[in-house]
Amino acid sequence: MEHIRTPKVEQVRLLDRFSNKSTNGTLYLTATHLIFVESNSNNSTSAGQEVWILHHHIASVEKLSLTTTGCPLVIQCRNFRLVHFVVQRERDCHDIYSSLLRLLRPVSYEELYAFSYNPKQNDQQREEGWQLIDLGAEFERMGVPCDQWQLTDVNRDFKVCETYPRDLYVPITASKPIIVGSSKFRSKGRFPVLTYFYQEKKAAVCRCSQPLSGFSARCLEDESLLQAISKANHNSRFVYVMDTRPKLNALANRAAGKGYENEDNYSNIRFQFVGIENIHVMRTSLQKLLEVIGTRSLSMSDYLVGLESSGWLRHIKAVVDAAIFLTKAVTVEGVSVLVHCSDGWDRTAQVCSLGSLLMDPYYRTIKGFMVLIEKDWISFGHKFADRCDQLDGDPKEVSPIFTQFLECVWQLTEQFPQAFEFSEWFLLQIHEHVHSCQYGNFLGNNQRQREELQLRERTHSLWAFLMSEKQNYLNPFYSPAYADSHPVLAPSTLPYNFKFWRNMYHQFDRSMHPRQSILKTILTLRENSCKAESALQSLESRLQQLGVTPIVTSDPPAPPPTRDQRSSALPPRPDSLILGAPINHKEEHQRQDDDEQEEVGEEATESFDTERTVEGSSGTESRKQSYGELDGTYSSELAKEEPAVVSLEFGVARMTC
Amino acid sequence: MEFSEHIKTANVEDVVLRQPLHPPSRGTLCITGHHLLFSDREETGTRQFLLLLKNIDAIEKRMSGSSGTITIKCKDLRVLQLDIPGMEQCLNIAHSIETLSCLDCASEMYPFFHRPSDLSLQDQWGLSSTEKLYSQMKELHDRWRVSTVNRDYSVCPSYPPAVIVPKNIDDSMLKKVAKFRQGGRFPVLCYYHRKNGMVIMRSSQPLPGANRKRCKEDEDLLQAVLDGSDKGYIIDTRSSQQATQARMTGGGFESKSSYSCWKRLHRQMEKGKALQESLIKLVEACGDESNNMDRWLSKLENSKWLFYVQTALSTAGLLAECVERDGHSVLVHGSEGKDSTLLISTLAQLIMDPHCRSLEGFLALLEREWVQAGHPFMQRCAHSAFSHARLQQESPVFLLLLDCVWQLWRQFPLALGFSEALLLRLATEAYASDFGTFLCNSHQERWALGVMERTHCLFKALLRPRERDYYSNPLYEPTELAIWPSVHPQSLQLWRGFFLRWTQQSRHLEEAQEEIRNMVIEWGKLALS
User: Fold this and answer.
1) Of A147, A527, B37, B57, which is most buried with the most CB atoms under 10 A?
2) Who among A300, A494, A614 is closest to B322 (CB)?
């Protein structure tokens, strides 16, 4: 590619983010990735570490001033990876820097990875992938159309609202003129439409944008559309209108001819503010959070103070609080709710989707969660391109709204370990690909744009890919019976229930992770038991074929799941940091070794006399000596069963296949 | 033993009991010398609720009209409420609880009356002893010996009768060393690292005082520990400033000039009152219902509890690093050598020694390093987070240990042979128990009261088959490797299982744990079928 000046730079050092450790290697720049390969010189037995960074994942590149050891290059990624290279020659560094600057700001969609990514599928497979999620079927599942709600073709050609999908569901009594009239009174034409129907109480969740009410304007069509929504639910004589903004923001909007519904004009509404802050506040909050947790030798006190002052968890709680309000209104009171914010594509998407997740166990399954994202985020026009900075655009439009949604879901999975079919790893994988631009699903800002880009014809669908690896995302604690007994989740929003999501924001900082993973172990055990079971069955049927009556006790015992079986018989898993490192004790041990040096040794210097500190004195010889033996025992035992796995970071392995 | 004089009203009918995670129930309340007993008679049969009075940390009574309400705050952080009809009855009950819950005569406590049917007093008390440990570890025999210089507790009142010391230090020297160490706690062996023969010793601070006195025998003892190795480390759990100040009151530290082969490392660890106040603040924060995120985080920070957890783990990591990585012996002490010293030597052993990580191994470690080593449980655990009583010797050091072990368990969920339930059980038992294990402040006091003859041993009870099943970790896969914890603040967490134990959310997590156990058992069966 014309932007790549230097495809390969040798003798580059990769500095660890939280310790003084560094590794040497070679940096490659390809059309899609920046790749760092550790050189094997220092330890020939273990394969070198590889770091693959997709250009689209890079949020910023910074070239720091030249030091004696070389020229530092700091790369910050949207998946919260932060890498710090030191390139020996200033010129090489500059070449890489300027190439990256160009590569990470694609100007047209055609430059995005999705258009060149080819997972070796034929057209039919690709088409099937795109058909996996069918929103028409989803509305049918909810029980729509029904006697009160119908499909309208008013937006068939995106004429009424450019940012809505073609198919919309409205009350049966809402005529076209009413809809068109209402859309003129709503910001960006986003008039009230159905997004979730709670069949049990016939209550609806509707969404829209703010009304253009200014200080006194009103619109009869809009009023009758709300009336129609209210009438469609016989259980209640009013609808809640939830304005998800802080009241002050809504007031300020009035001066710009926008605003919120005046309760006096709408005969049948109850109006409610639920202060979720806007995209700018959220962006700044996350930046602050990342700054705090990126500090080296962070003290406990600075961490907690920083967590507080970033406000991040407060915002997460605000979104969950809003979703709970929505859920209670619908499921307990049986009242329909209309949700909006300013344009109705950020906070509204968060609250509607999270609310639906609380109300409907289907959305807590893997497939259902895909449907939910497809419905409330993709089809209703959350501006993924702008919010995730897919093309070189306005930095003020970038905001971690979707990340926040995923985090809210994660917080819920922590409170209800048995309620979700998927594990945290699924959420992280979605987050990864929202930013990777590897699949077509999240490209562009709305359906119309996606159709123009012909994404269905030219790119692949993430959902099909995730579905194909479904077993990796299963939550072993998931219990469908729990869903039956708890169809509606009622989370607690006491502050201590909100935790810092280490696996998201420190996903790539291995030293912070638990060293062993319950999730991985349980998944492995389960797979083994399934295997044992099927082996047992086949043996039994074999015995029957041979005409022997199987006696339970005389059955050949299924082999107990020993460790070597586990590691050899398993299909390769994605090397997830969350699921834990590969079962390779040697690597684990070495890593612990390095971590500890930093964690404990570093601070070990408070003393009277400035003699050698522990870290200094634990010279390489003594360490080698004591570990020499250990390495021996462990490698001879384990190396055989599991060839050293090149630990590619997750996601990347597949991108390259 | 006249408990009855404190009980004016023994029975009250028609009492309503409200406890967390349960619907309120109506029934009969009964106060005995050691227990609060509540039984309700529902159609489905009688349910009973039994609470050791010793478990009660504080009560509040509120009268309204002819009835009253007693709020009971327990040492295991549970909060209960009793609605009692009749003002006089209510006052009587409250008075009984107040008096009986803080009787401080150990010999009248419940462990002396507890007689479970499946345990016999004839059984050997405790899991092990110094002599047994020594005889099992042949590696020790060359250079170490068991000394019974303290058999009548005259050399060190807080040590057990037998301790392990360097072979060439005789008992007369030990007596002199004891005079040079606070409370007579001379350096004794607490851990032998099989991989490289290095050891962890512990003691109290030396007593050079302002005159910088020396003690030849003390220096010889430490030299004997080194046994030709070029140096050792002394980890002092005080800051260097605190250690220097201690000289003014007769204490101090091992100076460079007198102990040339020993290098001191200072790590300030909070204990005593500061720790107790930290616990009180944390528990208060956890009970705050104001629903304000900022306030919660700032209270959590303000309590400093997680900071203490971090310090303890990183100091223990340092200790383990000295021994395992650096290959040197270490002496650990603070001032008294009964609190932080035990905390970090225990954690370091868990980090390094796979034997300590099994269920039995862990209990034996606690027995050795806490019960026998003379952690004053009675003083430290007299009150918990709710008490309004003036603080004296209370300090939740043992609880801090359990929290640190929990953090280890979270980071290495397969490496430890016991479950979170065990840690929770121990946290409760340390404050109020049916068993004698945590009674008294030292071996001597327990001997004087006949604890070993007249009560049952908790650790033994925890190893009964049913208990063992419940308290073992279904995912346990022993590893020989050291388990180095991460001490980044992002890697440490509030111990929800304990501090938020009585909330609905913890219940969900418990269910998930139970689910793991069931799954593993089921798969185990399948594998065997």
Assistant:
1) B57
2) A614
Contact B92, B74 (CB under 8 A): no
**Test the A interface: residue of B490, B492, B498 with most A CBs within 10 Å:** B490
Count of CB pairs separated by less than 8 Å, A with B:
222
Say if CB A292 and CB A298 are below 8 A apart: yes
Position A570 pLDDT exceeds 70 = no
Let me know whether A143 and A91 are in one domain: no
Q: Looking at this predicted complex, what is its ipTM? A: 0.91
Residue A341 is assigned to a ligand binding site = yes
Which CA distances in Å does A169 have to A114, A383, B34? Answer: 31, 21, 67
Instruction: Output the pLDDT for position A451.
Output: 94
Q: What is the pLDDT of residues B135-165, one digit of tens each?
A: 998 988 989 999 999 999 999 999 999 999 9
Predicted TM-score (pTM) of the model is 0.88
DSSP for A423-462, please give it: -HHHHHHHHHHHHH--SSTT-SSSHHHHHHTTHHHHS--H
Give A362's Cβ-side CA count (13 Å radius).
14
Q: Are residues A427 and A287 in the same domain?
A: yes
**pLDDT for residue B512:** 79
| pLDDT value at residue B5 | 79
Co-location of A282 and A331 in the same domain = yes
Mark whether A186 and A64 lie in a shared domain: no
Interhelix angle A176-184/A220-231, nearest 10 degrees: 120
Domain boundary pick from A87, A105, A123: A105
Please report whether residue A586 resides in a domain: no
Work out the widest C-alpha separation in chain B, in whole angstroms: 79
Question: Any binding-site annotation on A631?
Answer: no
A553: chain B residues, CB-CB within 8 Å: none
Q: How many domains does chain A have?
A: 2
- Asked whether residue A343 falls in the same domain as residue A244, the answer is yes
Residue A178 known to bind ligand: no
Say if strands A336-340 and A203-208 run parallel, antiparallel, or are unpaired.
parallel
CA-to-CA distance for A212 and B509, rounded, in angstroms? 47
Q: Does A360 touch chain B (CB under 8 A)?
A: no
Judge whether A655 lies within some domain: no
Is B508 in Cβ contact with A497 (below 8 Å)? no
pLDDT band at residue A642 under the 50/70/90 scheme: very low
Verify that A302 and A425 share a domain, yes or no. yes
Asked if B297 lies within 8 A of A479 by C-beta distance, the reply is no
The predicted-structure confidence for B449-464, as pLDDT tens digits, reads as follows 999 989 999 999 999 9
Structural domain span for residue A165:
132-510
Question: What average pLDDT score do residues A418-430 get?
Answer: 95
pLDDT-derived band at A45 (thresholds 50, 70, 90) equals low
Q: Which of A274, A302, A308, A503 to mutate to test the interface with B (most CBs of B within 10 A)?
A: A308
Looking at the annotation, which residues of A are catalytic? 341
The answer to whether residue A117 neighbours chain B at the CB level (below 8 Å) is no
Question: Is A596 part of any domain?
Answer: no
**Residue B281 predicted with pLDDT over 50:** yes
A392 in the same domain as A331: yes
A323 and A277, same domain (yes or no): yes
Contact B225, B166 (CB under 8 A): yes
Give contacts of A415 with chain B, Cβ < 8 Å. Answer: 505, 508
- For residue A525, being part of any structural domain is answered with no
pLDDT in tens, A142-186: 999 999 999 999 999 999 999 999 999 999 999 999 999 999 999
Residue A419 Rama label (left phi>0; alpha psi -120 to 50; beta): alpha
